[in-house]
## 1
Amino acid sequence: MTVAIVGAGAIGGLLGAHLARSGEDVILIARGEHLAAMRTRGLTVRSRTEEFVVRPRCTDDMSAIADADVVFITLKAHAIPAVAPQIGRALGERASVVGAMNGIPWWYFPDRHLESVDPGGVIAHSIPHQQVVGCVVYPAATIVEPGVIEHEEGDRFSLGEPDGSKSERAQRIAAMLTNAGFKAAVQTRLRSEIWLKLLGNATLNPVSALTGATLSEMFHGDGSRALVRNLMDEVASVAAAIEVEIPISIERRMQGAASVGEHKTSMLQDMEAGKPLELDALLGAVIEIAAWKEVDVPSLRALYGLTKLAERNRRAD
C-alpha cells in the first residue's frame, strides 16, 4: 500500500520507518531541519535492541498524499486544524484516514464538535467522517536530533471504526502494522480505550508539566498520589456521563503509570523545549464535555488553569 504520514515527527517517523522497512510505499510529510536531514541522510531509528536507516519519500508538500491508500495523521492535536483544509483538498476519495493522536479525537462525537479539539468544526468539515479510522497510540519515541528517532518503549497501536465495527479496511491496516513489527488489533470498543489512555494523559501530563516530575516521581509521596487519584476520579466521572466504562480500575492505572519509571511525559518534554502544550485535546476536552454533561470537575479545572498559566509565563521568559 501507499502510506502517507502527515506529521512525521517522533511517532509518525517511527511508524513510517517500520512501514518502509517492511516494504510499504511510504511518504513522510515533515518540515524544517528534520525534513532536510531525512532527505539527506535518511531516517534513523534507534532502540535498545536495534538501529536501522530507511529512505522513504520525504516532502513538505501536502499534495503528495493524493495517491495514498492510507493517511496517518500523527501531528499534535492542536496542530491539526491549521492543516486540515489542505489535507481535505489533497485526500483521495478512497483513502482511509487514521487519526493517531492523543486525547479526544475530532471524530469522537459524530453529531457535534468540541471547540477545544476542533475549533469551528474545521477538521470535521475538511476530512469526511466516513473515511476516518480511529487509533490509540502506545509507543513512546523522541527525535534526538534531526533525522534520528529514539524508540523508548511500546509497540502497540489499537485501531477501530468510529461505529465500532470490524471493517475490512481496519483489519487491512492492522495487518499492515503487524507485518511492520507492531502489535495491532481492531477494537470494537475503541472509545473505552481512548478514555483509558486519557485517564493518565489528562492528569499526569499537566501535573508533570507543572512540577517537572517524572512518572515515577509523581507516585513517590502520599500527597501526590492522592492528587493524581482525585484527578483521575474526575476524569472517570466525565467518561461515565457519556456512558463510557473505563475497563480497568484507577488503582491499576496508577500502578501501570508508576511502573514506567523515570520517564518524562510528552507534555513535560514540550514544556522544557518551549513548544506549545497539547493541553486542550488532553484536558480541555474533558472539561468541555463535563460542562456539557453538568459534571463538577473542580480539580481538573484548577489543573487546566495552572498549566495554562505556566505555559504563558514560560513564553514570557
Note: The mean pLDDT is 94.
## 2
Amino acid sequence: MKQYLFLALAIIFEVAWAILLKYTEHFTRLWPTVATVVTYLAALYFLSLTVRTMPVAIAYAVWAGSGMVLITLLGVVVLRQHLDLAAIIGLMLIVAGVLVLHLGSKTAIH
C-alpha cells in the first residue's frame, strides 16, 4: 500500500512544479524557481519509490495521466485558462485510460 502513497505524493509534487513553473517567469524569479526545482525533484523521488513495487510503465502512465488532468483542472481554476471541447474529450480519455490501467491491469502491482 505504500506504493499508492508514494504515487500520490509524486503526483502532488508533479502538479506543484508544473503550476509553479508559470510563476518562475522563464526562471528569472529566484524563489519560484527554487520551489519549482525542489518540487520537481520531490516528484521524481517519490516516483522512484513507487517503481520499486509497481511496474514502471503502469506507475508512469498513472503519474503522467493523473498529473495532466489535475494540472489542467488547476489551470482552469487558478490560472483562468479555458478548455475547448477537444481538450475536455481528451482529458476524459486520459482519465478513462488511467482507470483502466489502474483498476483493470493485473500487472499494476507485482
Note: The chain has a mean pLDDT of 92.
## 3
Amino acid sequence: MQLIPAIDLMNGKIVRLSKGDPTTAKIYEEKFGTPLEAAKRWRDEGASKLHIVDLDAAFVLGDNLSVIAEIAKNIALPIQVGGGIRNYETAEKLFQTGISQVILGALAFSDPSAIGKIQKKFGFDSVIVALDNKDGQIMVEGWKTATAMNVDDALEKYTQLGVRNFLITSIAQDGMLSGPDLQTLSAAALYPNAKITAAGGIGSIGDLVALKEIGVEGAVIGKALYEGRFTLREALQKIGA
C-alpha cells in the first residue's frame, strides 16, 4: 500500500481543514515551512508520491498554480493534484507544470467526456476520479453540492468509462483523526478493475494497518502527519510500503 503525504494549499501556505470547512483552516508554516520545504521533507522521509490540493481553486478564491509548479520543478516525485479542476484547460495547465495525475471531482460528474480527452493526451493513468462522499452520497464543488450518485454507482459508471484510479474521501471523517470509513472502503476495494486510494480520518498507524488489510492501493495522510501523530518514516517502516 502506497502512503501519500498531503499538501493542502490556501494563500500559498500549507493548511488543514476539518470536514472541508474553510473557516477551520489551520496553518502549518511555523513547523513545516513553505509548501516546497514540506515537499522536500516528505521526499526525504521516503514518500514515493505527493498529493496536493488547491483549496483556493476548489472554493473559487484564486489558485496556487505557481506553488504547485515550484514543487513539481524541484521534487522528482509523481504528483497528483486536485481542487478546482472544472475544465480541460485547467487540467492542461497543471500537466504543463510537470505533475503526473489530476484528481477530478465536479468535472468528472458534469462532463465525463473530459476524462477521455485528458487520458488521450496525458496517458491512461493521468486521471483519478474523486469520490468524496457524505453518508455514501457523492459531493462535489468543494463538498457543497450533492450529486445523485452513491459510491457504488460511481464506481460502476467510471470503470465502464475506462477509469481505474479512484480517491475515496469520507467527508464526515476528514481532518477529524477519528479513523477512516472502513465500511465504504472495504466494499470499494472489492470492486473489479478499480484501484482505490483512501483519504479522510487517518489518525494513527493502526488506521493504516486496517486500510492495508482491506486491500486499498494507497492512503493519503494529512493532518496526522502535521499534528505529529506519527512520522511518515515510522508509517512506512510499519506498513512496509
Note: The chain has one domain: 2-239.
